[in-house]
Amino acid sequence: MKNTSKSFRRVLVTSALPYANGPVHIGHLAGVYVPADIYVRYLRMKGKDVIFIGGSDEHGVPITIRATKEGVSPQDIVDKYHAIIKSSFKEFGISFDIYSRTSSSLHHKTASEFFKKLFLSGKFIEKITEQYYDEEKQQFLADRYITGTCPHCGNEKAYGDQCENCGTSLNATDLINPKSTISGNIPILRETKHWYLPLDQYETWLREWIIEEHKEWKPNVYGQCKSWIDAGLQPRAVTRDLDWGVKVPLEDAEGKVLYVWFDAPIGYISATREFTADWEKYWKDPETRMIHFIGKDNIVFHCIIFPSMLKAEGSYIFPDNVPANEFLNLEGDKISTSRNWAVWLHEYLADFPGKQDVLRYVLTANAPETKDNDFTWRDFQARNNNELLAVFGNFVNRTLVLTHKYFGGVVPEPNSLTDSDQAVLNDLVYLPQKVASSLESFRFREALNEMMNIARLGNKYLTDQEPWKIWKTDPERVKTVLHISLRICAVLSIVSEPFLPFSAAKLRGFLNINTFNWCDAENPGILPFGNPVNTPELLFEKIEDTAIEYQVDKLLQTKLKNASPAGHIIPQRTDISYDDFSRLDLRTATIIAAEKVPKTKKLLKLLVDTGIDQRIIVSGIAAYYSPEEIVGRKVSVLINLAPREIKGIVSSGMILMAENSAGKLCFVSPIEDFDNGSAIK
Ligand SMILES: [Zn+2]
Q: 183 C-alpha to center of ligand 1: Å?
């Protein structure tokens, strides 16, 4: 593969800029930031010159819409979410060298200069088109600021870019009866000039650079690029009429800003520039290896559009790899910010304080590397309890406790090695190499599994050797066993660092390892005999069923709310006593005859056998059941409800029905064929 045949002097790692109109969730972490952080931590431990760039994407229409809705400025919105996002990343140990933002003045300057250079060297084409304009507010309307009737399905609230009812992509001019959402007025069409990047002119180059030279890219990335290029590329507008964003730095461009897709990737460059005065060597020296970590929705921007911008500019390098991930789903459903179907990082930390590594572990073990993958709370619990706690944590704890018990907390000197000792020591050299080679190929799940194989190796070794059984008879042998077990702990404390940085640091604290690099995984001197080790605390704690049930229930509540947009969920009523309940005489019964109550739509008159008597009950179920289909049906009846007259009929009792959030009714019946009159309690 290319990355092994060519050697680079330094590495520039970027991770997608999250959009600052909401907090970040586990999907972001799994798809982009955890793998990028693992990769960067590993390279740093290898002593590479690497920088890790991140920042918030703060321009674009969704932010202005949100600001209008909340009655604040766009800057207020991005200030709020930039702070939340930045702090979530910090808390999860995402070790950016800089986490910047695209509303910064340096970014505005950098993006302006970039545009200006392309403009002056004739890289854009100009086009005049007709766009909707709000005469009262005196502004052009972005697609999302126009609603109207969908020409396909008749939905009267379709947006200028899409109908959310039938899912069709639209042009604003397709809408019937268009309306400005700002003033409510009918917009007029007005001519406007914009600049376009003619992507079609880069097709031949892209074909050569990606299709021919980057066959080693992940199949999902390579395949998507190929199909875009094969479909033919079109000129793409780099400017738009909007007042929030990087102003177009030209004289005849009042009221125009750079399109967010154009300014956002330049954010990587601005952030690097903010981080170091020596930024150009990371962006322009061919001996720099550039890697973009992104989700699959960003592939076209990072593999086709941004490289074309860089190519047009002329002095920049191109990404060497773009290891994009697929999507992470949550409990079988697509993660959605608008439906609140997500695990938000700040909420996770409130519910599981100090358990950042557990989430990092589970998200890596389940990473959507080659296909969409699912996060479930049960899997989260199982991986913590059965893997991190039962294997990794348990092995470390047993080793350190035994070292204290037998050797006063000092690393013992080994004696002669048996064949099985030697085999373990060989694996201890081999496994970290496997971790490294998986990491270098962006196979993070595999790398994590190999790391855990070191813990599994230790756990098995200690269990097989049973030092607690031979201590009395062969204490010399116990010295060797614990020495090797401590070596395994030391290797773990180094190799687990990219994946579980908080726990790895704790473990090195137990072992008094202060300085280390990746090569120290193979260095026995990292833990010399005679060195003291500290009393361990638990590295991982059991996660109880109640904590998981709480999370599952939280999601269930979200689902119920989503299922009933009208807010039909009936809140729990006030408590009653057992006496209140026991006064209800509930029985099983059978409907033996049924007919419609004349001149009503909802009511059926039922003759019911309660086991005690046969009686008339009037029930409001005609919308859901016809008289014919319910004769013979087993039901549950409240028989001591005081008789009352309904439409001239005396009704004695009530048939129990379940009502769902949409207001639909169904019978509540015993699931076995019970005699009529059986008590329900
Ligand atoms: Zn439609």
A: 23
State the pLDDT at residue 6.
Answer: 63
Which pTM value belongs to this model?
Answer: 0.82
C-alpha to C-alpha distance for 205 and 652, rounded to whole angstroms: 83
Gap from CA of 144 to ligand 1 centroid (Å): 15
Ligand 1 geometric centre to CA of 155 (Å): 5
Q: What is the mean pLDDT of residues 391-403?
A: 97
* d(CA 346, ligand 1 centre) in Å: 36
Q: Where in the chain is the domain with CATH 2.170.220.10?
A: 122-221+224-230
Q: Is the pLDDT of residue 407 over 90?
A: yes
Helix, strand, coil fractions of the chain, as percent rounded to 5:
45, 20, 35
Alpha helices in 192-305 (DSSP H): 203-206, 219-231, 260-275, 280-284, 299-300
Say how many Å lie between the CA of residue 300 and the centre of ligand 1.
26
Q: What is the Cα–Cα distance from 618 to 534, expressed in whole angstroms?
A: 76
CA 166 to centroid of ligand 1, rounded, Å: 4
328, pLDDT greater than 70:
yes
Q: How far is the CA of 149 from the centre of ligand 1 (A)?
A: 8
| pLDDT score recorded for residue 166 | 84
Q: State the pLDDT at residue 372.
A: 93
CA separation for the pair 352, 601 (Å, rounded):
53
pLDDT tens digits along 605-620? 999 999 999 999 999 8
Residue 209's pLDDT band (boundaries 50, 70, 90)? very high
Cα of 156 to ligand 1 centre, how many Å?
Answer: 8
- Quote the pLDDT of residue 405: 96
CATH 1.10.730.10 residue ranges for the chain: 376-526
Q: Separation of 330 CA from ligand 1 center, angstroms?
A: 28
CA distance 643 to 616: 10
| pLDDT exceeds 80 at position 562 | no
Class level of CATH domain 122-221+224-230: mainly beta
5-117+261-334 homologous superfamily: HUPs (3.40.50.620)
Neighbours of ion ligand 1 (CB under 5 A): 150, 152-153, 155, 163, 165-166
Cross-strand bridge partners of residue 603: none
Q: What is the CATH number of domain 578-667?
A: 2.40.50.140
Band of residue 641 on the pLDDT scale cut at 50, 70, 90:
very high
Question: What's the average model confidence in pLDDT over 366-373?
Answer: 93
- Ligand 1 centroid–CA 186 distance in Å is 20
- E strand or H helix at 511: helix 501-511
Distance 147 CA to ligand 1 centre (A): 12
376-526 is a CATH 3.30.1360.20 domain: no
